[in-house]
Amino acid sequence: EIDSVVNAGTFPTVEDRVNLPYIECLLKELQRWLPVVPLAFPHRLTEDDFYEGYFIPKGSIVFPNAWAISQDEANYKDPKRFWPERFENPETAEPEPYKYNRLLINTAYQLRILGISAGINFADATIFIAVASILATFDIGKPLDEDGNEVEPKISYGPGLIGCVAQTSSWWT
Questions:
Q1: DSSP letters of 16-39?
Q2: Which among 35, 42, 102, 125 has most CB atoms closer than 10 A?
Q3: C-alpha dihedral (148, 152, 156, 162), degrees to nearest 10
C-alpha cells in the first residue's frame, strides 16, 4: 500500500494518510491489541456514578482498564488475535480503540481547557508518521530460527505502568 502511494525515496507524510487505509487499520489494531498504558491514566469523577450496583461518589479517582476493554469479547471477536482487517469495512468494523481513549476524558469543555485535544491529535499524527515511515523503510517479518523457519513471537506482559516487555533481536547481543 505504501509503495503505491508514496514516491520512491520519500517518506510518508500526514497528507498521505487518507490514501493509506490499511495503515489506519494497523494503527487502530496496535492500540487495541496491546495498549501502551493498560490501566490508562487516573481520572476524577465529575458526578456520582453507579457501576454494576456499586455507588462511586463524585470526586473519586478511577483507573479505566483499557486492556480489559480492548480484550472484551463483547467488543471484539477473537480479541487476542492481532488482526488489523477487523477495522477495514466501516459498516462491519468493531469499536475503535481511539473512541475508548477519548471517552476516558469526560467533556469537550475539559478538552478545550486542558489542551488535551491538540495533544491527542499531535500524538496520533506522530504515531502515524513513525509507523508509516518504519513500514516504508524496512521489511518486517517474524524472526527466523537456526534452520530459517519462522518463529512465532512471544507476547508477554510485565509489571509497571507500561505493561509490554521489549525484547531485542539476538544480533544486538
A1: GGGG-HHHHHHHHHHHHHS-SSTT
A2: 35
A3: 80
Place of cell 518504519: 134
Digit-coded pLDDT (tens) for 83-122: 999 988 877 776 666 554 444 444 444 444 445 566 777 8
What would be the CATH architecture of the domain defined by 2-172?
Orthogonal Bundle (1.10)
Q: What is the pLDDT of residues 26-71, one digit of tens each?
A: 998 988 888 877 777 788 889 999 988 999 999 999 888 888 888 8
Q: Which of 43, 44, 102 is nearest to 69 (CA)?
A: 102
The answer to whether 100 and 66 have CB atoms below 8 angstroms apart is yes
Instruction: Report yes or no: 20 and 11 within 8 Å, Cβ to Cβ.
Output: no
153: Cβ contacts below 8 Å, ≥ 6 apart: 142, 143
DSSP 80: T
Rounded CA-CA distance 118/39 in Å is: 22
| β-bridge partners, 24 | none
Q: How far is Cα 42 from Cα 123, in angstroms, rounded to an integer?
A: 19
